[in-house]
Amino acid sequence: MNLQYLRSFYMTVKCNSISKAAKTLHLTQPGLSLQLQNLEKELGANLLIRSNKGVELTEEGKVVFNYADTLLSIQGNIERDLKNLQQDQPQLMIGSCKSVGDYALPCSIYTFKQLHKEVDINLEVTSSAEVIENLRQHTINIGIIQHNPKANDIITQTIVSDELLLVGNCHDSPKQISLEELKEIPLILREKNSGTRYLVEEALEKKGIDLKDLNVIYNLNSLEAIKSSILAGKGFSFLPKLIIQQELKDSSIKPVLVEDLTIHFDYYIASRKKYKFTKYEQMFVDFIISHKRGFC
Fold it and tell me: Which residues belong to any copy of the HTH lysR-type domain (predicted)?
């Protein structure tokens, strides 16, 4: 299949206009039309319905457009990765979940950088689900996530174990509550698709409790915002012990034991199944895993 014709088709759909797509692609309109016709001839299917209002995908065109989106993305990733390999300065493209990326990981990256000053390190902090998707899209090569997705195209290596603790402010939080009492207290949860929320939901489902049974007052995608809310006495939340060690030490927030509920989990290094780490990527992975706690 001619990728140039495929790119022309893709851009025509995105622009919803042959004239606009031709201008973007630096082609003449007749030249672009000829490429579209050649692609349709090559595939043996009509892909576009042309009208004065623009272009519309046929059912066959919708299938081809979805594949074009993937193929052209892969082509761009190949070109980018080859360019990175040809650069004098090695690069690390890392994605991390927030509970590690906002707290423990920057310290480890700093230490690694001191040992390998020649490496250019880029870190993107998102949710675990987004880290996995970014791996699939080839925008990162190393992921650090909070739960194992158990996906066929992703492989994982355990870094360190942790625990989710229910915590409240230090003034009026109880020492222990039952599962029934858990349903009544004001809860602040992480956003959908976050690793922490997934772990909480999974643990409660095993106890026959749905998130809809809880008194969730709001959802936040910022761990610092959640901690601020707890300190202000606005509610309780499940947070990884790793990120609240200082607050626990200072007794500014207080753990609340929930009867018959513990949420242990691991942090993982994640990568694409068929991807082979470069020299410096493997050195970074080994560096992270070799630390007993995984992070400094």
Answer: 1-58
Q: What are phi and psi of 118, to 5 degrees?
A: -75, -10
For residue 1, the model assigns a pLDDT of 76
Please state whether the predicted TM-score (pTM) of the whole model is above 0.90: no
Describe the crossing of helices 3-15 and 59-86 by its angle, rounded to 10 degrees: 120
Residues 182 and 46 occupy one common structural domain: no
Q: What is the DSSP letter of 174?
A: -
> Same domain, yes or no, for 39 and 104?
no
- Write the CA distances from 194 to 29, 34, 113, 230, 237, integer angstroms: 46, 47, 28, 19, 14
Q: How far apart are CA 152 and CA 117, in angstroms?
A: 35
| Nearest Cα residue to 247 out of 227, 276, 229, 265 | 227
* Dihedral sign computed on CA atoms, order 42, 77, 88, 285: negative
The conformation of residue 162, written as its DSSP 8-state character, comes to E
Looking at 52, 86, 120, which one is the last position of a domain? 86
pLDDT digits (tens, 9 = 90+) for 72-102: 878 877 776 777 666 667 889 999 999 899 9
165 and 256 belong to one structural domain: yes
- Residue 47 above 70 pLDDT? yes
Q: Give residue 280's pLDDT band: very low, low, confident or very high (50, 70, 90).
A: very high
Q: Which tokens hold the place of 129?
A: 């689900």
